């Protein structure tokens, strides 16, 4: 039985179409800058928002109308939901999906029961993956919802909470492997603190590193070859999350010898909460060799929390795609819509509008970024800006031929620096707008 009987697979109708249930720009097999759109984006649907998001907020309960949900949250209901999820992913035409263990199957009375519930749904996922060709971009474990994780999981003051979380991660790495998942994500959840008055920060950070090493070791032991990813977020739910931003995460990974095993999963709304533009986070990770995957969404600049909205801003998607084109893309990562419809958008069809909008916004961003890239104006301006490093003293410094003494002699003789050139920021902003 279909959950969306009135909706066909979303077609591409082109920029002139006024059909709200058609793509205007996303055409999966169109080749841009040497790759199909499907391969550029590797779009993924987030199970937790799209199939479990009820629309509750601190002021009221859920609002979502999801006619396929039964009245009890049991394994049968979860199996049915899994079929609905694949019908949706198929109709929207995304090649990937992502989930946390507890999104897909109800938690049992014991860990053993929870494992069994999860296995029952993974069986359905395997069938559906086989039937549709849809793949798992990444798996992860929910180590933050259950009250046992009130103090965190890997960074909890309670060693048993650490152990319980470890058991969940072991299971989810196995599940991710069974489903052929290409990545495994660690997002901090409650790994952080509310007050330093009760917190041994060093001990908590050491434990977090130990936890990640255990995961890396276990993956090796069972031959799981997916990429591990660490997802930065500065705050929420804790006041200070240890995975604050990519600079903090990369420092953590290097400090604890994890840098060869873990890359970053960057989320747009988390970047802005940390006071960065997404482009900053992406460029920084790329420059350090840590760009792994993207949780594509956007925040609301007037609201100071993680609103997880669908990306619709062409300027943002253009910037994102500029960085990705420059650095050769994301695979084995992808663009996962870690985004939810607003509480007021409670009908199932709203899920389609939201994802169509996000995919189209990225498709336009890609077309614009590819054009900018192809015509090369921006790149040549950047290259020219650093031209003093291509010859003379600049070239010599880069080649390691100088020290403070030799540079003093150089400057004493020369007396003053070559005149600076304008940064041309306004001209460059106009240039980008010309393409948009
Ligand atoms: C929450 C995070 C979460 C991760 C997966 O803010 O974005 O959804 O992506 O645990
Ligand atoms: Ni996320
Ligand atoms: Ni988020």
How many strands in all? 12
**What is the tally of helical segments?**
16
* Main structural class: alpha/beta
Strand order of the largest sheet: 3-4-5-6-8-10-11-12
Topology of helices and strands:
Elements: E1 31-32, E2 35-36, H1 37-41, E3 43-46, H2 47-52, H3 75-92, E4 96-100, H4 101-104, H5 111-132, E5 135-140, H6 159-178, E6 183-187, E7 192-193, H7 201-222, E8 227-231, E9 240-241, H8 246-255, E10 262-267, H9 268-273, H10 278-288, E11 291-295, H11 314-326, E12 335-337, H12 348-375, H13 377-385, H14 392-398, H15 404-414, H16 425-435
Question: Could you please describe the fold and organization of this structure?
Answer:
This protein is an alpha/beta fold. The chain has helices spanning 37-41, 47-52, 75-92, 101-104, 111-132, 159-178, 201-222, 246-255, 268-273, 278-288, 314-326, 348-375, 377-385, 392-398, 404-414, 425-435, and strands at 31-32, 35-36, 43-46, 96-100, 135-140, 183-187, 192-193, 227-231, 240-241, 262-267, 291-295, 335-337. Helix 6 (159-178) packs parallel to helix 7 (201-222). It is globular. Bound molecules: D-xylose and nickel (II) ion (2 copies). Residues 187, 231, 267, 295, 338 line the site of one nickel (II) ion.
